[in-house]
């Protein structure tokens, strides 16, 4: 048993490819926990950042600076009454949130957090991700129909039309990136997520900057399509509050609603990681070829620890700025403790043994986090599109652009 | 990694595919039929995976389960379900249908019995890694012309649909 567990350390493969069930299970649990924490953090960050963009304070009451707000919300949702409309279709109503959540989490088994840090490496990796995430629209449609109510049905119709339209533009952008992988030294293209990043490593360029500006345009198409795919602002017509109250999940409450919420954020993280893997070099640190050498390697390996120390310093600064009234005493201590935990993580990340293993995961997560920040930024700045405008952008702008980029990439691949 | 419990998964997936296929024609509610069809298609995709054809399985999921069936549901949801449920959806041709199904089944059994020599006695272990490449070589190499003709046919169908659906172009 112990031999089985330790035998994996020698292999240079992902647990799935090495066929080690134990480590595959450990990875699945870690990714699930990490995602849950990320969704909680994202919930708080989105409310805070949006609030600051609109010159508000955002949640301030539960915990220092509202840090415990997501936990309070989760508790509230768990103990809330779970209502099913009388005329609803019970089976479909029950299954819909499950489908959305399962598809949103399943895609993560091929996401490469590092050269060996993925549950498994499929040779149809990117196809698998696109396929499984395209199944999530079924859950949305089922939820809207099963509620037997007008607003959810409208939301479901909008969502299915929108997702099917944007999937095409998304697919074309992905194909042009996959085409670039066939131009590496071996001359063999790949659909595997790890293979795509390794191709970028071999060609010494992120695909976003390959064949300038072709890669950048493909990345742009994907970046627009992925916002539409996840039903986020400015393409959040399926759940447009001003028109459809809450769209397809209007009739859902309590725990089922929180499943939709969880799925939405985890789907956002999933498509962001596709974008990062295909165009932004996956787990690679910035400038691996221009700033190479041992010194730069050392400098970049210190960044994760420094980032956490910076967060800890900011937390301590805000602890010092807390109101001095005795009413805030517990909150001040709590915020100080949170800062201490961040500082401790930062110090642990400086240890050479941890530093070398954590780097890939850190850079991947940092790039995904940047993309998640963009999501919040879009929501704070762009007004919602009208439905005909949405369709026009999808079919008349992104689709021809995608075909053009695909053809030009193929031509450039032959010429250079 | 060697495949685990192949026989079990084969029968499980086959049963899933066939049972949900039966549900498609027995459910009165059209949305339930469509959902059963999705399960059936997913079962098929998993069977493709068992045949070491991951690319075909992936395309099956993206195109059929994620694309075409969503459009199916889109149309079905616009139909008034309560009204269509009261109508008698079954036309009286089940006898002919049953005869045709039995004939097809007999044909399959006959092909298997007569042409047993043509079937390999064990599943061939294809290298999973090159499936996508092999499909590409066949489509864009050996059968390039057929492939392009098929895509032309689809283009004609799309244009035809647009011409028929739109009054003024």
What does this structure look like?
By secondary structure, chain A is mainly alpha-helical. Chain A has 15 helices and no strands. Chain A has helices at 2-6, 15-18, 21-53, 69-79, 90-106, 125-146, 150-181, 193-203, 214-229, 241-244, 254-279, 294-320, 329-350, 352-381, 387-415. The longest helix of chain A is centred in the first third of the chain and has 33 residues, at 21-53. The model of chain A has no long low-confidence stretch (mean pLDDT 85). With 169 residues, chain B is mainly alpha-helical. Chain B has seven helices and no strands. Chain B has helices at 6-26, 30-50, 54-78, 81-86, 94-114, 131-142, 144-165. In chain B, helix 1 (6-26) packs antiparallel against helix 2 and helix 6 (131-142) packs across helix 7 (144-165). The longest helix of chain B is centred in the middle third of the chain and has 25 residues, at 54-78. The model of chain B has no long low-confidence stretch (mean pLDDT 82). Chain A binds chain B through residues 16-19, 89, 92, 122-124, 127-128, 130-132, 134-135, 137-138, 141-142, 144-145, 153, 156-157, 160-161, 163-164, 167, 171, 188, 191, and chain B through 1-2, 29, 31-32, 35, 38, 54-55, 57-59, 61-62, 65-67, 69-71, 73-74, 77-78, 128-129, 131-133.
SSE map:
The complex is a heterodimer of chains A (416) and B (169).
Chain A: H1 2-6, H2 15-18, H3 21-53, H4 69-79, H5 90-106, H6 125-146, H7 150-181, H8 193-203, H9 214-229, H10 241-244, H11 254-279, H12 294-320, H13 329-350, H14 352-381, H15 387-415
Helix pairs in contact in A: 3-11, 3-14, 4-11, 5-6, 5-11, 6-7, 7-9, 7-15, 9-11, 9-15, 11-14, 12-13, 12-14
Chain B: H1 6-26, H2 30-50, H3 54-78, H4 81-86, H5 94-114, H6 131-142, H7 144-165
Helix pairs in contact in B: 1-2, 2-3, 6-7
């Amino acid at each position: 048993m112990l031999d089985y567990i330790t035998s994996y350390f020698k292999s240079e493969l992902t647990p799935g490819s090495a066929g080690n069930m134990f480590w595959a299970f450990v990875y699945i649990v870690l990714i699930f926990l990490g995602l849950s924490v990320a969704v909680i953090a994202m919930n708080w960050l989105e409310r805070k950042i949006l609030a600051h963009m609109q010159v508000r304070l955002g949640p301030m009451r539960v915990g220092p600076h509202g840090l415990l707000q997501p936990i309070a919300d989760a508790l509230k949702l768990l103990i809330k009454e779970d209502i099913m409309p009388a005329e609803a279709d019970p089976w479909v109503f029950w299954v819909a949130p499950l489908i959305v959540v399962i598809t949103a989490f399943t895609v993560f088994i091929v996401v490469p957090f590092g050269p060996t840090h993925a549950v498994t490496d499929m040779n149809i990796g990117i196809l698998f991700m696109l396929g499984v995430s395209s199944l999530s629209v079924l859950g949305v449609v089922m939820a809207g129909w099963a509620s037997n109510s007008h607003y959810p049905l409208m939301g479901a119709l909008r969502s299915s039309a929108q997702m099917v339209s944007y999937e095409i533009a998304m697919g074309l952008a992905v194909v042009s990136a996959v085409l670039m992988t066939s131009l590496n030294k071996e001359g063999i293209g790949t659909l595997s997520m790890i293979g795509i990043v390794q191709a970028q490593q071999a060609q010494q360029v992120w695909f976003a900057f390959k064949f300038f500006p072709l890669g950048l345009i493909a990345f742009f198409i994907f970046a627009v399509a992925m916002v539409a795919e996840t039903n986020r602002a400015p393409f959040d017509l399926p759940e447009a509050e001003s028109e459809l109250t809450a769209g397809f999940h209007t009739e859902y409450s309590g725990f089922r609603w929180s499943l939709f919420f969880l799925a939405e954020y985890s789907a956002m993280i999933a498509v962001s990681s596709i974008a990062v893997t295909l165009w932004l070099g996956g787990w690679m640190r910035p400038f691996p070829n221009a700033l190479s050498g041992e010194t730069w390697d050392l400098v970049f390996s210190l960044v994760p620890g420094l980032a956490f120390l910076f967060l800890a310093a900011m937390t301590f600064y805000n602890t010092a700025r807390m109101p001095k009234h005795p009413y805030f005493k517990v909150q001040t201590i709590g915020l100080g403790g949170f800062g201490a935990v961040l500082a401790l993580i930062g110090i642990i990340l400086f240890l050479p043994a941890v530093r070398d293993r954590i780097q890939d995961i850190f850079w991947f997560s940092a790039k995904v986090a940047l993309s998640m920040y963009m999501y919040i930024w879009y929501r704070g700045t762009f007004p919602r599109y009208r439905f005909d405008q949405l369709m026009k952008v999808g079919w008349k702008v992104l689709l021809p652009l995608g075909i053009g980029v695909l053809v030009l990439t193929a031509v450039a691949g032959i010429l250079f | 990694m060697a495949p685990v419990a192949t026989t079990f998964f084969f029968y499980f997936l086959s049963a899933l595919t066939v049972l949900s296929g039966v549900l498609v024609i027995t459910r009165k509610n059209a949305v339930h039929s469509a959902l059963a069809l999705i399960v059936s298609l997913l079962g098929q995709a998993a069977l493709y995976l068992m045949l070491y054809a991951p690319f075909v399985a992936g395309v099956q999921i993206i195109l059929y389960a994620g694309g075409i069936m969503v459009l199916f549901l889109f149309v079905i949801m616009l139909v008034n379900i309560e009204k269509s449920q009261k109508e008698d959806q079954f036309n009286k041709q089940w006898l002919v249908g049953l005869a045709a199904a039995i004939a097809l089944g007999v044909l399959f059994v006959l092909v298997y019995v007569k042409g047993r020599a043509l079937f390999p006695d064990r599943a061939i272990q294809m290298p999973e890694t090159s499936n996508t490449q092999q499909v590409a070589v066949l489509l864009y190499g050996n059968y390039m012309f057929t492939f392009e003709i098929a895509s032309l046919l689809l283009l004609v169908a799309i244009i035809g649909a647009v011409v028929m659906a739109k009054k003024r172009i």
